[in-house]
Amino acid sequence: MTMSVSPAVFTLKRFRDVASINAFIARRPDRARLIYEVVRSSGLWRLTLVDLDEERELYAVGYFIDGAEDREVVYDFIIKRVWGGYVHEELDEKLHYPPYVLQKSGGLILVTLPHVYKEAIIIDAPQVCWRTDPLHESVYIWRDSTYNVLDCGAGLFSFKTMEEFEKWIRERVCTEDHERPLIHWPDWFVIPGASGDEEWSAAVRRAVRGRHYPSPEDVITLVRKAAEEET
Predict the structure, then answer these.
(1) pLDDT at 12 exceeding the cut of 90
(2) The pLDDT value given to residue 214
(3) What are phi and psi of 195, to 5 degrees?
(4) Mapped to the 3 state alphabet, what secondary structure does the chain carry?
(5) Tens-digit pLDDT profile for residues 126-156
(6) What's the chain's average pLDDT?
(7) Cα–Cα distance between 229 and 178 in angstroms, integer?
(8) pLDDT tens per residue across span 151-202
């Protein structure tokens, strides 16, 4: 009798991991390279997604394992976007059913390796982005070593200085005629004191909701206020 082996299951909770994988969902590249690595001696692992539309765009979750002598690449293949998520590109051409690797399911982002019909590794994370119409997606702003904006309708943007951030914010103003300059953000939040290692749920509990369809000054003022409170 053949014994079935249960897949290894990992749930992403850390702020930086949840933000990173949701940034990938928000960006929605047509194709990406997926790399899953492990360190055999410690069990540490890392999943990296490389946006092949913009090869410099990297999305990594898991642990920092660079330099580990027994680091091993377990999976390395291309995924492509289809209806409902991402499939293993090479296998999709051979199989009669879509070999999903990354998809949204029940409020989660679900990664199944090597694919959903042969689960050896399962990684899940809270689905923050692409829950509604793209024009009504949430926006999250926080500061760590950089100023960061997770725009769930567009992706992740990072700026080294407040000046770069302010310039980018002012460029978001709608060019249509309005009574005041505004940015089409119906639902946006500033998260003060966000730490990459804390749980996403703990960080967003501190989030401060901004004004519906803000002006650039509304955004800049709230971000500056949060920065002052952190110091």
Answers:
(1) yes
(2) 95
(3) -120, 135
(4) CCCCCCCEEEECCEHHHHHHHHHHHHHCCCEEEEEEEEECCCCCEEEEEEECCCCCCEEEEECCCCCCCCEEEEEEEEEEEECCEEEEHHHHCCCCCCCEEEEEECCEEEEEEEECCEEEEEEEEECCCCCCCHHHCCEEEEECCCEEEEECCCEEEEECCHHHHHHHHHCCCCCCCCCCCCCCCCCEEEECCCCCCCEHHHHHCCCEECCCCCCHHHHHHHHHHHHHHHC
(5) 999 987 666 689 999 999 889 999 999 999 9
(6) 91
(7) 33
(8) 999 999 999 999 999 999 999 998 887 778 899 999 999 999 888 899 999 9
Answering whether pTM is above 0.85, one says yes
Contact 207, 189 (CB under 8 A): yes
Contact 52, 80 (CB under 8 A): no
**SS3 category, 218:** helix
For the chain, the structural domain boundaries read 8-126, 134-230
